[in-house]
Amino acid sequence: MLVSDSHKFILFHYPKTGGSSMTEVLARYLTPTVKVPEVKFGGWQPKHHYDFLQHRPIKECPYGEFSYTYFLAAFVRNPYSLVVSAWDRKTSFQDFIDKKVITKEAISTRWTQSEYLCDDQGILLVDFVGRYEQLDLDWQKFCYMTKLPKLKLSNLNNTDKGDYRQYYNEATYQIVNKLYKKDFNLFKYSEKL
Questions:
Q1: 193 within domain boundaries
Q2: Across all residues in the chain, what is the average pLDDT?
Q3: Is 192 inside a domain boundary?
Q4: Which residues, 6+ apart, have CB-to-CB distance to 98 below 8 Å?
Q5: What is the domain count for the chain?
Q6: Cα separation of 122 and 180, whole Å?
Q7: pLDDT tens-digit map of 107-128
């Protein structure tokens, strides 16, 4: 969780939703303030997170002391696109789905977005949910709501693999559709490819 005492916000960083770019531009506003290294790989991001861990569901984060006075936000992504982005190409896409996504071994797919952002009753725990698909627009909304200047996001950790639909067959489509059913409903994403 990225915390800013100066701007009274917490940004919960779900994997593969632009978090590296957000962390970089927010670094000087975060608590603790840590300089972003010139070389951006291998472990630089956790230093900017309040709990030193990048990707933990909200209900596991120590955010309670902030919850009533800080603006809580997160960004989400179409589950089909999210799973393709998380795929490391070390195996086939089918094997990735079968061995990493279904078993929740990959950190990027360990929790669905709804599991990550909701309590045990399914109640959303943030004030604002931005969408990766309209990242520039929703990022500017986030900046406005947190009284930040119009910060421009860089394009770090981009895993552009083209149109995500090309990787799916009927089996992988059905698996992702079933696993992320609550995400499709809660965040109003189409279940069609």
A1: no
A2: 87
A3: no
A4: 175
A5: 1
A6: 14
A7: 778 899 999 999 999 999 999 9
Rounded Cα distance, 108 and 42, in Å? 16
CA angle 90, 177, 182 (to 5 degrees): 115
- Provide the pairing of β-strand 128-131 with 71-76: parallel
Long-range contact set of residues 149-155: C-beta below 8 Å, sequence gap at least 24: 151/25, 151/26, 152/25, 153/18, 153/21, 153/22, 153/25, 154/21, 154/24, 154/25, 155/21
In this structure, is residue 133 part of a structural domain? yes
pLDDT bracket for residue 19 (50, 70, 90): confident
Q: Which residue range forms the structural domain that includes residue 89?
A: 2-186
Distance between CA atoms of residues 82 and 132, nearest Å:
10
CATH code for the domain in which residue 104 is found: 3.40.50.300
